[in-house]
Structure formats: structure tokens, C-alpha cells
Amino acid sequence: MREYKVLTQKDRWFGGKFEPLKIEQALNAYAQEGWTLVAATTAEFPALMSGKRDEMILIFERERPA
Prior knowledge:
By secondary structure, the chain is α+β, with helices and mostly antiparallel strands. It has one helix spanning 20-32; strands spanning 2-8, 36-45, 53-63. It has one helix and three strands; from the N terminus they run βαββ. 20% of the residues lie in helices and 42% in strands.
């Protein structure tokens, strides 16, 4: 059985900022826990000032621990 984890800019890793170094740190930390990145995409959400904003979404997968 597999399990999945979804990571977005709102995750604790990023503190509201989605910087390349923070992405790398998150990827390495999850890899050490057995997670594999299986998809990366963006989603468009409404924003108050600019009308819309894009948010990155990372999807990880791993075998569920016994």
C-alpha cells in the first residue's frame, strides 16, 4: 500500500516564501524519510489585489510503513 503527501507554499517549510533553496531542503528531508517526488504542478487561485496567483504543488509518494 502506498501513501501520499502534498506540499504547497503554505507548508511550514516555506513560511510563505517559495525559494529554490527551501525547495531543495524540503526535497532532501522528505527523501530521507522515504518519500519520492512523483509530480510537480501549479494551480491558479484568486488573489485580492492582483486577481490571481499561482501556487506550486509538490506530490510525494512512498510505501506505507508496516
